Amino acid sequence: MPRRAHTLRIPGQTSELERVRRHVEDWAGEAGLSPKETRQLRTAVDEAVANAIEHGLDDQRDHITIRSASDASGLAVTVRHRGDRFDPTLPPVPLAEAREARAVHGYGLHLLKTLVDSLSYRFVRGANEVRLYKRKR
Amino acid sequence: MPSFSVSFRTLPAPASGADIRVLDLAGELDAHTAPEFENALQSCLDEGHARLIVAGDDLRYVSSAGLGVFMAFLEPVRERGGDLKIAALSEEVFEVFDLLGFPLLFDLAPSVDEAVARFAPEAAGAAAGESSPTA
Questions:
Q1: Looking at CA atoms only, how far is residue B91 from chain A in angstroms?
Q2: Distance (Å) from the C-alpha of residue A22 to the closest C-alpha of chain B?
Q3: Which residue has the higher pLDDT, B135 or B41?
Q4: Bridge-partner residues for A118, per DSSP?
Q5: Are the Cβ atoms of B32 and A96 closer than 8 angstroms?
Q6: In chain B, at which end, N or C, are there fewer CB atoms within 10 A of the end residue's CB?
Q7: Contacts of B28 in chain A (CB under 8 A)
Q8: Domain locations in chain A?
């Protein structure tokens, strides 16, 4: 399969999330992920971008860049944005504890970690970069 | 076409007690549309409704922001003597609820009719956790 790469640049607004999901679905389909793998990656990317909008941006005029690259084994999606450090790979509050406390926030990080095969984070030249990888089964 | 909508209907209680308010969700519930869902649930409480069913027949997507709204209203509704039951989720949406263990806290019913029946006095002791996503 030829490698395919795509780039999507969006303003840091939640109204863009639906468009992000549609693009990820298209990229995943093109890369040959199954419907379930596609759904899982779509949800994980949605959570990563929502986190960037909520926590990481300096202001709403900032943009978020989402890149995808497929290889023979699966699809990588990278979410990059300037702003404060926000590392989604750090351990979140344990699920049982969050449920017990009736927490309203914190579930997105669990989804992010659970739904992809690898998740990595780095802070480079003032920008947060979260990389998600979903393997084809 | 809007990507998310909430519509309301009222059903009579299965036996005695207050009527049941059903919120039919359609579309995609994410960080952008979650405030609309939050306002809808708040309006139910403001109008004195505490027996609520959220129906997901036409809900295609839920993110953690949407799940947080469910969580925010669970105790306020139960403190008023009611419940926030969830009905008729698609397999895809149920997957997300299940992944986070929400069926341990919420009463998930396969259909709105089943959720209504669980508001009957004899069903009041039924525990959440006996959940299934679809009819």
A1: 11
A2: 12
A3: B41
A4: A133
A5: no
A6: N
A7: 18, 21
A8: 4-135
pLDDT in tens, B46-70: 999 999 999 999 999 999 999 999 9
Domain A4-135 indexed as CATH 3.30.565.10: yes
Q: What angle do CA B44, B99, B54 make, to 5 degrees?
A: 20
Q: How far apart are CA A109 and CA B75, in angstroms?
A: 23
Q: Which of A43, A54, A57, A95 should be substituted to probe chain B, the one whose Cβ sees the most B Cβ atoms within 10 Å?
A: A43
Which pLDDT score is estimated for B129? Answer: 47
Q: Residue B72 and residue A104: Cβ atoms within 8 Å?
A: yes
Work out the mean pLDDT of chain B and round it to a whole number: 91
What domains lie within chain B, and their CATH numbers? 5-118 (3.30.750.24)
**What are the average pLDDT values for consecutive 10-residue runs of chain A, which has 137 residues?**
85 95 98 97 97 77 92 97 90 93 94 97 94 96
B28 → closest Cβ in A18, A104, A107:
A18
Distance (Å, rounded) from C-alpha A12 to C-alpha B24? 30
pTM comes to 0.92
- C-alpha–C-alpha distance, residues B44 and B88, integer Å: 20
Between chains, do B96 and A50 touch, taking CB under 8 Å as contact? no
pLDDT at B1: 47
Residue with tokens 């359609």: B26
pLDDT above 90: residue B135: no
Distances (CA, A) of B49 to A99, B56, B114: 24, 19, 19
